[in-house]
Design goal:
heterotrimer, A mainly alpha, B mainly alpha, C mainly alpha, B: mainly alpha, Helix Hairpins, 4 helices, C: mainly alpha, 5 helices
Chain lengths: 769, 118, 137
């Protein structure tokens, strides 16, 4: 399994050096990737569908509890098959769709990266690993949305998508870490044992909230849905793959995966039902207002994701079955519809359904695929969609009696709108008379129309043989979500009951709405008027406000003047230190413990202070430098008094050399100019005096603290006995801390080399100024 | 005596801070040196201050007399002094180069060309 | 800055200062002194010489570029760190020759290490000062 996850990463790395070759007919090699992966997972179907699962663990970062743990169960297999299976269709389709595109190789690099990340995510059995792959899907999606990077619109959409999903990822990480801490394990399959601990934990609602944020942003639930229509700026194969069949279902996968551990509590169900329910209704209605084919599909995808969230929120056996089937149903027909849209766009250069009609006469196989996909999407009997729709109604009807009416109505209205939307996308462009400009259109290559046709046919085939679909794909997935045996068994005919009536009503009403629904400019204008209430608008505005704030803030604090940075840092340090001093209370001074004072010491300090004042007030550089060296010599004398002969010698020689250096370099410079204003100077004097006083107090307090002598005693005791030296300071330097000293000499050498090169650097006349 | 040293520390810090708030590059450098000296003395004061007893083991003894000065701060300061020399030297040379190029000691003149570029 | 008084003084001061610096280096393990101070005193000796006789003369006296002292010093210091490893001891273990010597006391890797520090310090200081005075324009 690890290899299958890594395969895409390896491929995308491989594409970097060999991209040029792969642009030619060798690009067929790339097609092997999804095919091989799909075959690998198909081979595992019998094992998994009989209730088994596969575990694989490779150590990675054991200290953090992050291992490359992969686990394949029913739910993972369903997703893995979707990812690789639809991947095949997308790869073949995109190869033709992007033929001759300058970034052809780059596209497949991103796509392989994405496929791997997605596979890794659904297979990961470690929460942190899951998060890493989750973020990788966001990142690869960013590149794919912004693939046409010369268009500002693409770039903007890519950034919007990345910020929304990235924000969600951040919350998800927090949620997963919290969950891992509560449960004491990061292994997903072990979490189930801690279910009671987690649900009883006071932070349980917070964990849920954080996970929901991750799932809702990724799966485009209201109010985070707006990035998905924007993401339609991506090339159509990407929209079909990422933004309908796979990536947007990552949030659903997350909810499904954690459903047995966290689910079936009011805190879990109500938010999911409310958000999912609202999203599915809102987006389904919106899809009827759009004229752009991709927009219609985007909104109907959001609606379908809403349905899935809603079903997982209900969380009953029936709802889980419905969800596990609907994931497959939706992936098949939606990917097909997207690919069809891509062909239409590719051939007619428009996606406006008010202009498209009659294309069946020129694009017959495409029209057939569209029809089949639309039928499955509408849930016409004998299609897989019919079974999916039935199960949804089954789920809403098997809820507590007070809920039945409202939930069923919600589902009914949503489904009616979706039927109409499906017809608009799958049938409308092909029905009616063929306008003159479209007559010259030719059928594209087989590799473009065959994938959607196969996907659409799949939707019908599974509908005719629901038994296979149920036992092979959905049963174990539903069991994994439910956490127990769901005894899922799919049938075409359930007898004449409420569900059938609801299905027929849906179909009839949907068809009726499709007939009378005439989307156009006026409707869009109406939507635009309400725009300032939309989450997208509000988020955009708040992002603008944030930018303005940071611009103001940056301008205020990062004004390019070194001294103002210094001032800020010093003021902050003063405030911090003063606060700390204030907390620690009054300072005590023990006058008896102090060393005696002699005349010499007072004299030296007096000279030092005099030199300091001289240095601060002088107008000439030389005086300042000489004062500096006088201060140095005074310090040197202090070292002599206070038993530090080594320090005294070093300070003396260094001070001499520094003075020589200053004089060598600076004697030519002009005298100091009075650059600051008087006001500034007084302010600076105040700031520096306060700093000095605070440091005095810190030093007093520190001096009052008892000295820890353990280290000093160790060196004092060991210097002669172990290192055979009597000058303890020198023994510390060359023996005990010899490595430190060695690296200090390295630093010195680097400094000298720096000076050497700085001075030998001869700028060309052109580089001056 | 410690009080006197602490006074010196405070004054050196105040002087150093005042200098690094100036516009002149030379003053900035002198300010940094003052701060360095002040920190050295601060570290020195944090050990016990002892007169006339350097941290050297007597010729008849095997271990350091407990009444001697603390060797650890001294070792720290010694390296600090030497390193600060390298820093100062590099800074001085940098200053020389900047002066040779721009013929100014004013820090504000250093960032103006960039701002014009933007 | 050529003054004959200084030149004459340097003629005697240079060997004395150099001798003093070596003295400081050697006794560093027992009395105040050591590689840092010794190196600094030696540099001062050369700086004084260069003031009196010009930097080129000092360079000639030194016989090589001061920059080349850096790798030699670092090499010696690093070698004394690694040396104990040839006897299967952990690096930095002090190795000592038997017997005592005048001034130096016991002879061991610590002194060797200090010699490396000494050379690096001389190299660093002279590189900085000589480069500055040579590129004075």
């Amino acid at each position: 399994m690890l290899l299958t996850v890594l395969a895409g990463f390896i491929t995308s790395i491989f594409i970097i050096p060999f991209g040029k070759i792969l642009k030619s007919k060798w690009s067929v090699l790339l097609m092997a990737l999804p095919v091989v992966l799909f075959l690998y997972y198909t081979r595992l179907i019998p094992h998994i569908s009989s209730g088994g699962n596969l575990l694989e663990s490779t150590p990675w970062i054991p200290s953090l509890g992050v291992n490359l743990d992969f686990r394949l169960d029913g739910l993972s297999l369903l997703f893995a098959l979707l990812i690789t299976g639809i991947g095949i269709a997308i790869y073949f389709y995109a190869r033709t769709y992007l033929k001759g595109h300058p970034y052809f190789d780059r596209f497949f690099g991103y796509l392989s990266l994405f496929m791997s990340a997605m596979l890794g995510m659904v297979l990961a059995d470690n929460m942190l690993l899951l998060f890493i792959f989750w973020e990788l899907t966001s990142i690869s999606s960013f590149f794919l949305i912004g693939f046409n990077n010369t268009e500002p619109g693409s770039r903007k959409s890519a950034i919007t998508a990345l910020s929304v999903t990235g924000l969600g990822g951040f919350f998800l990480l927090a949620g997963l870490i919290l969950l891992g801490n509560i449960a004491g394990t990061y292994s997903i399959s072990e979490l189930i044992h801690s279910r009671d601990v987690i649900i009883g934990h006071p932070l349980y609602p917070l964990v849920l909230g954080l996970l929901f944020m991750g799932a809702f942003t990724k799966s485009a639930q209201f109010p985070f849905h707006f990035w998905l229509p924007g993401a339609m700026k991506a090339p159509t194969p990407v929209s079909a793959y990422l933004h309908s069949a796979t990536m947007v279902k990552a949030g659903i996968y997350l909810l499904a995966r954690f459903s047995p551990v966290l689910g079936n509590t009011p805190e879990w169900s109500y938010p999911l039902m409310i958000v999912g329910g609202f999203t599915m209704l809102f987006a389904a209605y919106h899809s009827l207002l759009r004229t752009d084919l991709k927009s219609i599909l985007a909104y109907s995808t959001i609606s379908a994701l809403g349905i899935l969230t809603f079903l997982l929120g209900i969380g009953t056996r029936e709802a889980v079955i419905a969800a596990s089937v609907f994931i497959l149903v939706h992936a098949l027909y939606k990917a097909a519809l997207f690919l069809i849209t891509g062909i239409i766009d590719h051939e007619t250069h428009t996606r406006d359904i008010t202009q498209l009609s009659g294309l069946r006469k020129v694009l017959l196989p495409v029209a057939l695929a569209g029809l089949l996909a639309a039928l499955s999407s509408a849930g016409v009997p004998l299609s897989f969609g019919f079974i999916g729709k039935d199960l949804i109604y089954e789920a809403t009807l098997h809820t507590p009696s007070s809920w039945i009416f409202i939930l069923t109505t919600l589902a009914l209205i949503t489904n009616i709108c979706l039927v109409a939307a499906g017809f608009m996308a799958g049938i409308k462009p092909f029905a009616g008379p063929l306008p003159e400009p479209f007559k010259k259109i030719h059928l594209p290559y087989t590799s473009m129309w065959l994938p959607p046709l196969i996907l659409a046919l799949g939707g019908i085939l599974l509908g005719i043989m629901p038994d296979y679909a149920g036992s092979l794909f959905s049963l174990q997935a539903a069991n994994a979500i439910f956490g127990a045996d769901t005894q899922l068994h799919l049938k075409i005919w359930h007898g004449f009951n409420t569900v059938l009536v609801l299905s027929l009503v849906t179909l009839a009403a949907g068809t009726f709405i499709y007939m009378i629904n005439k989307p156009g400019k006026e409707r869009l204008n109406f939507v635009k008027k309400l725009n300032h209430l939309s989450p997208e608008y509000i988020m955009g505005k708040s992002v603008d406000a944030f930018f303005r704030f940071s611009e103001w803030y940056t301008g205020k604090f990062h004004n390019g003047y070194l001294r103002s940075y210094h001032l800020q840092i010093i003021l902050f340090a003063e405030a911090l230190l003063a606060y700390k001093l204030w907390l620690s209370g009054p300072i005590e001074i023990d006058f008896f413990s102090l060393a005696m004072l002699s005349v010499y010491e007072v004299a030296i300090v007096a000279i030092l202070i005099g030199a300091l004042i001289m240095m601060l007030t002088t107008r000439t550089r030389l005086t300042a430098v000489v004062s500096m060296s006088v201060i140095g010599y005074c310090i040197c004398l202090m070292f002599v008094f206070y038993s530090a002969p080594d320090l005294a010698m070093t300070q003396f020689t260094i001070d001499t050399l520094t003075t020589v250096l200053f004089v060598l370099v600076l004697y030519k410079l002009p005298p100091f100019l009075n650059l600051g204003t008087k006001k500034e100077r007084y302010r600076d004097i105040a700031v520096s005096l306060i700093f000095g006083i605070i440091l005095c107090m810190v030093a007093l307090q520190a001096h009052h603290e008892p000295i820890v002598t353990a280290t000093s005693n160790f060196y004092g005791d060991a210097a002669y006995t172990e290192a055979k030296g009597k000058n303890v300071v020198n023994v510390i330097l060359v023996d005990f801390r010899g490595i430190d000293t060695l690296f200090e000499t390295v630093v010195l050498s680097i400094g000298a080399i720096g000076v050497y090169n700085l001075l030998r650097l001869r700028l060309k006349p052109s580089e001056k100024e | 005596m410690e009080l006197l040293l602490i006074l010196v520390i405070g004054m050196l810090y105040a002087g150093g801070i005042y200098f690094i708030l100036r516009r002149s590059m030379v003053k900035l450098l002198l300010g940094i040196m003052l701060l360095g000296s002040a920190t050295n003395i601060l570290i020195f004061v944090l050990g016990a201050i002892v007169k006339g007893k350097p941290p050297i083991i007597g010729s008849m003894q095997d271990v350091l007399d407990k009444a001697s000065a603390d060797p650890v701060p001294q070792a720290l300061i010694l390296t600090a002094i030497v390193i600060s020399f390298a820093l100062t030297a590099f800074a001085i040379v940098l200053l020389k180069r900047v002066y040779a190029l721009l013929e100014t000691d004013d820090l504000d003149d250093l960032n103006t060309p960039e701002e014009e570029d933007i | 800055m050529r003054s004959s008084i200084l030149q004459t003084a340097t003629r005697y001061l240079l060997p004395i200062l150099l001798l003093f610096s070596v003295f400081l280096l050697l006794r560093g393990h027992y009395y105040p002194g050591g590689g840092f101070v010794g190196g600094l005193v030696a540099s001062i000796a050369f700086v004084l010489h260069s003031f009196a006789n010009g930097t080129d003369a000092s360079m000639k006296l030194l016989g090589r570029k001061p920059l080349s002292l850096l790798p030699i010093g670092l090499g010696i210091a690093a070698f004394s760190v690694v040396l104990p490893m040839f006897w299967g001891l952990p690096p930095m273990t002090g190795l000592w020759l038997k017997g005592t010597f005048p001034i130096v006391g016991s002879l061991g890797t610590a002194l060797f290490f200090d010699l490396g520090v000494y050379l690096v310090v001389v190299g660093v200081v002279l590189t900085i000062l000589f480069t500055i005075s040579l590129t004075d324009d």
